[in-house]
Each structure stands twice: as structure tokens, then as C-alpha cells.
Specification:
The chain has about 500 residues and is of the alpha/beta class. About 45% of the residues lie in helices and about 15% in strands.
């Protein structure tokens, strides 16, 4: 075990006097470090006795308390301030913070050089340092077995044993980083929101980043095992390097899978019958009952596809991805798309209705495209084709064509200022039941019969013909689509012209 602050205070030749934080005197001191910076966090790893002539201690009460709280948050063992040199008077707020945090603050006699304190700490901890070095060597020994890297769960169980830490790995989004290695526990997930320059020390251990190809691929959390003396931050950093190498290998393998999947999806979207690709599709989706096709609009399609592929694979969701004009994604109907697309730089997405891969994907692609347009026009992240009438699947996609369809069929009814058109809509929605239509409109059956004859005269069609009924219904849906698009544009213009709160 390392020497404690209380044991240092008990050495009379060091001349240490406790100023505040009596409750923390049993903190272990792993190192003694001189620092004259007001914010020394980037240079600390936890367990240090920070020594200062006082130049690091601010004069203002608020800054003094913040200085002490930063040290405590880093896991520093205590603060030693030299007497009669540069230290300003310690304010009541500083002393209250030390007592509240149980953070020991000691005064050092001006006659005692800091090196004397450092020497005592080093000598007292020499055995512990040797044991930490032995644990770091054991980490590398764990990799000598040629089979270790092929069984990641077993490798990390062995690394836990030799390091003295419980090990957890996850991506920045909280997803598993390596298969079979546990993710960060739910009660520690707040650590993922820490700023990038936060110290590695956390209560009970350390958290370090896992860099892959110049970016942060995730985090390694090491919590001290109660029955063992852990190897320290250096040991955990070595394990993070091992995790980074394994993640880099995994990402290369996944990139190959993504490219092969893109080729398969390209064949489907080109119209090739799924039956001709059954073997390759079964290898991806197995016995998945229903699939959905999504079209995703992104700032960078390639980057968005790569990020989606990584997150879906981490979640164990089978899928195919193809970045084209939009990113096309084929995945099981229950895939958590809504929770992912916002995290990969996308603006809008549309997803088809669930379907089975028994026929070409032309209709699902059309549904996804219509849903994507709905998402864009409404300014939402994800639109589901299931939320819209199925008739919309068959409408043209171009606004001018939709407008022409509506005008050609329903235009003659517009001159009546809406009463005939409303009568037609209610009549069709009621299943062409005249009694129900009269009740909903509040008109006499003879009045309804007159209106229906008038509609037939204006459009030149027999309302009892199935083809006429179907065409009228599609035209009504097209008219509703145009109105919805117009309202969406008006809302966006209104929001764009509205001054911000700060401007007001």
C-alpha cells in the first residue's frame, strides 16, 4: 500500500501542519509533485500530493475554491502549501470546500525543501512501484500466446486478472467497442459526457480514450479490484493500446463487409430479383421476417454510411448500406434507425413499410423516397411510410405532375367553392353510403343525391364505376399532399422571417 497523508504528517522532521480536510488524511499518496499552475489537471493522473510555494493559489475566494475543487476532482491526494512564501491568505470558502470534500490541505515549513517530501514518498512507495511495473510487464506477457488475440473475451479476462482492474469498453455513443467485452455500466455512463481534456482519474479508477486512425473510437474504463493492488494509469494505457489495435483490425474487417453489402444492395436496387440473390441475402439477414428500406439524406454520404455501418454492427443489427444520391439502408423492420441517424451527420430520412424480400424492391424504394420528401418538407429527422395513406405510394413524385393530376380531375369542382368537393370526400370516406354521408354533412338525402348528380355532370364520369372511384380518390390524396407541402413551406418561411429572442 502507498504511504498516506496522515503518515507523512506524523513524520516530525517534515514539519507538516494540517490546515483543513482532516477527514481525508487516510488518502494514499502515490507521488509528490511540484506544480505552480492554477489548473494542473492535464499533468496529473490521481494520487499525487501537489506541492506549491503558493503561486498557484488564487487570491479571490471564488477562484480559490474552484482551484481546490479541480484538484479534488482529479483524484489528487492532498495539497501542500509552503509557509511564508507566495501563498495568499486562505479564504473561508477555500477552507469550507476542503472540509466538505474531505480534501487534506497541509502547510509546509519554509525550512523543509519539497524534495525531502518527494524523497520520502518515493522511498515509501518503492515496493508498490515495483509491483505496478510487474503488472505492466504481465500485460504484455498476456499477448505472447498466439491464440490470445483470437478470443477477445478470454484475453480481456486475463488482462483484468494481471492488471488488477475491472475492464469495460464502449464507443463514444455507449455501444460495445469489442465483441464479448462488457460495455461501461449504466451507473457510469455519465463519464461519456466528460470534456475531452478531463483528467483520467475517476472515482474508483481511471478512464482513457481508445484512439484509432487519428480519432477517438471509444473509452476504456478501469475500476480497481477490491482484492488486488491495481497497476496504475500506465497499465491501463497499455491495455487501451491493445484495445485500439483490436478495434482497428475489426474496423478493417467491417469495411470489407460494408463494401460487399453495398454491391449486393446495388444489385437489388437495380431490379435484380431477390430470388437470384437468396444465398447471399440469407447470409446477411438469416430468417428475418420483415425488412424496411430507408433513404437517408446526409452532408457526406460516404461518412454517414460508414458511421451507420459501425453503429449497426456494434448493435448486432444485420443490414446492407449503399451511398448514392442518398444513403440507402436495408435492415430489419425493428432496426433503431431513429436513434442513430441524428448521430451520424444526417438531416432527414424516410423509411418504407415493412416487406419481405420475395419481389424486387421497387415499391419499397418508392415508399422510402416519398417518406424522405415528407421528412424534408416537414423538417423532421425521420418519416415513416407507414404513417401515410398507402395511396400516396402510387402518386407521381414531381410536384407539377401531382398538381396537374389534381387539377385535371377535381378542377371542375373547385368553382363550387368547396361544397361539392367536400361532399365527394365525405361520400368516398364513408364507403359511398348515402345515409351516412347525409348524416355527416347534415343535409337531406335528396340534397345529397342532387349534389352527386351535379358532380357527375361536372367531371363527366359515372360515380358508380370502380375506375372513376379509384381515380377520384387518388386525386383527392394528391390534393391533400399539395396542401401539406404548401403549409410546410409557409411554416418554414415564417420561422425564417421570425426574429430570434436575442434580436428581440
Amino acid at each position: 500500500m502507498s504511504i498516506t497523508v496522515a503518515e507523512l504528517v506524523a513524520l516530525p522532521h517534515l514539519g507538516l501542519e494540517v490546515v483543513a480536510g482532516l477527514a481525508g488524511l487516510e488518502r494514499e499518496v502515490g507521488w509528490a509533485h511540484v506544480c505552480e499552475l492554477e489548473d494542473p489537471r492535464p499533468w496529473l493522473e490521481g494520487g499525487e500530493l501537489v506541492m506549491t510555494t503558493g503561486m498557484a493559489v488564487p487570491r479571490e475566494p471564488g477562484r480559490q475554491a474552484a482551484y481546490l475543487e479541480r484538484l479534488a476532482a482529479c483524484g489528487v491526494a492532498g495539497l501542500a502549501i509552503s509557509k511564508d512564501l507566495c501563498a495568499p491568505p486562505l479564504t473561508p470558502s477555500f477552507l469550507r470546500s476542503a472540509e466538505r470534500l474531505g480534501f487534506p490541505v497541509v502547510a509546509v515549513s519554509i525550512e523543509v525543501p519539497f524534495v525531502a517530501i518527494a524523497r520520502i514518498v518515493v522511498m515509501a512507495n518503492s515496493d508498490a512501484s515495483s509491483r505496478q511495473l510487474a503488472r505492466q510487464i504481465a500485460v504484455f506477457d498476456a499477448l505472447r500466446d498466439s491464440t490470445a488475440l483470437s478470443d477477445l473475451p478470454a484475453l480481456f479476462r486475463r488482462l483484468e486478472h494481471v492488471s488488477g482492474f475491472e475492464l469495460y469498453l464502449c464507443s463514444p455513443a455507449g455501444l460495445p467497442l469489442l465483441p464479448g467485452v462488457p460495455g461501461i455500466p449504466d451507473d457510469r455512463r455519465d463519464l461519456l459526457d466528460r470534456p475531452g481534456d478531463a483528467p483520467a482519474h475517476v472515482p474508483g479508477g481511471y478512464i482513457v480514450s481508445v484512439p484509432v486512425d487519428g480519432k477517438n473510437a471509444g473509452y476504456l474504463l478501469g475500476l480497481r479490484t477490491a482484492s488486488a493492488e491495481p497497476g496504475g494509469l500506465g497499465t491501463l494505457q497499455h491495455i487501451a493500446t491493445i484495445a485500439a489495435l483490436q478495434r482497428a483490425t475489426l474496423e478493417r474487417e467491417r469495411e470489407i463487409d460494408r463494401r460487399e453489402g453495398a454491391e449486393l444492395l446495388a444489385e437489388l436496387l437495380a431490379g435484380r430479383p431477390p430470388g437470384e440473390l437468396a444465398g447471399r441475402l440469407d447470409a446477411v439477414f438469416g430468417q428475418a421476417a420483415d425488412l424496411c428500406l430507408a433513404l437517408i439524406q446526409a452532408d457526406d454520404n460516404d461518412a454517414a454510411a460508414a458511421a451507420l455501418h459501425s453503429q449497426l454492427t456494434d448493435l448486432g443489427v444485420p443490414h446492407l448500406l449503399l451511398p448514392q444520391q442518398e444513403v440507402a439502408l436495408l435492415a430489419p423492420a425493428g432496426a433503431p434507425l431513429a436513434g442513430l441517424i441524428g448521430a451520424v451527420g444526417t438531416s432527414s430520412a424516410g423509411r418504407s413499410r415493412p416487406f419481405r424480400l420475395e419481389v424486387p424492391v421497387g415499391v419499397p424504394r418508392r415508399q422510402a423516397g416519398a417518406a424522405l420528401r415528407q421528412a424534408i418538407e416537414r423538417g423532421i429527422c425521420l418519416a415513416e411510410a407507414s404513417d401515410y395513406a398507402e395511396e400516396l405510394d402510387w402518386l407521381p413524385v414531381e410536384r407539377d405532375v401531382v398538381a396537374a393530376l389534381s387539377e385535371r380531375i377535381l378542377g371542375p369542382l373547385a368553382a363550387d367553392k368547396g361544397s361539392l368537393l367536400q361532399t365527394l370526400i365525405v361520400w368516398l370516406e364513408s364507403g359511398r353510403r348515402s345515409g351516412e354521408t347525409s348524416r355527416q354533412l347534415g343535409v337531406h338525402p335528396h340534397t345529397l343525391a342532387y349534389r352527386l348528380r351535379r358532380i357527375e355532370d361536372l367531371i363527366g364520369r359515372d360515380l358508380n364505376t370502380p375506375g372513376t372511384t379509384a381515380e377520384l380518390w387518388l386525386a383527392i390524396q394528391a390534393r391533400g399532399m399539395l396542401r401539406q407541402r404548401s403549409r410546410s413551406r409557409s411554416r418554414r418561411r415564417s420561422r425564417a422571417g421570425r426574429p430570434s429572442r436575442s434580436a428581440q
